[in-house]
Amino acid sequence: MNIVEKEMWSELKRLAIAEADGEAPLSALMHDRVIDHPGYAEALSHLIAASLASPVFDVDAMSDLTSEIITAHPDIATSSMYDLKAACERDPACENPLIPFLYYKGFKGLQGYRIAHALWNADRTGLARFLQSRITEVFALDIHPAAVVGRGVFIDHATGIVVGQTSVVEDDVSMLQSVTLGGTGKETGDRHPKIRRGVMLGAGAKILGNIEVGEGAKVAAGSVVTKPVPAHTTVAGVPAKPIGRPASDVPAYDMNQDLD
To answer: What's the whole-number mean pLDDT along residues 178-195?
Structure first.
């Protein structure tokens, strides 16, 4: 672990110990998810496994799988810490990093996707699809394991989010519940949106087709986007049209839902 990762892990462990000491009914959970693990990668591996285990793929088998993948791909743990930091910085309801780590569907579902994506790229597509299915069942968001998602991504609330197979979501993007990155019909090939760095996608936004939403753009809640969105532009409506410019260069950081 680098120094940033060590600091994050130390803080998570400190918070978990305080929670266990202050709320006895949560002590077993804090030990199982955080305190009893030697480091962040091990805790993350167990968190995903415990969340996605099922009667036909128990927690021990799932832990073996997640540990194998995270050990082979240490960038998963690194990206996860950026995601955790993003949740803390962008969600006013987030009091400390332990809260999204343990309880946020968007954070946990995204980390499950990262395992599935590594499996997909290793041609272990059956396992990748199984994890995709479990993530959808458990967390109510559906990210295809072939999609490409950067780090520092904040998925707020998560329910109803769909990210299609050929989608690209770059670093530092924020999206709220019921966002769809989908196709426009039965076309094949590269058919899903490309969301560039720093974009904010409001609740219920639908971005459809192989189009680009440019860096630092903002898509208002409930909009339907079927044409490319220029960088640093706010779009709104059905169909979405440019209505101005976001108040900052990285609207994903601000999470400002007002129309500019």
So the answer is: 95
Rounded distance, CA 143 to CA 148, Å?
A: 10
Are 43 and 16 a contacting pair, CB within 8 Å?
A: no
Residue 164 φ/ψ, nearest 5 degrees = -75, 170
0.90 exceeded by pTM: yes
d(CA 143, CA 168) in angstroms, rounded, equals: 11
Work out the mean pLDDT of the chain and round it to a whole number.
96
Q: Which helix (H) or strand (E) element contains residue 218?
A: strand 218-219
Q: Is 108 helix (H, G, I), strand (E, B) or coil?
A: helix
Whether 240 shows a pLDDT value over 90: the answer reads yes
Phi, psi of 90 (to 5 degrees): -105, -15
pLDDT, residue 259, reads: 85
Q: Residue for token digits 């260069």?
A: 249
Distance (Å, whole) CA 76 – CA 159: 23
- In the sheet with 168-169, reading across from the earlier edge strand, the strands are 148-149, 168-169, 194-195, 212-213
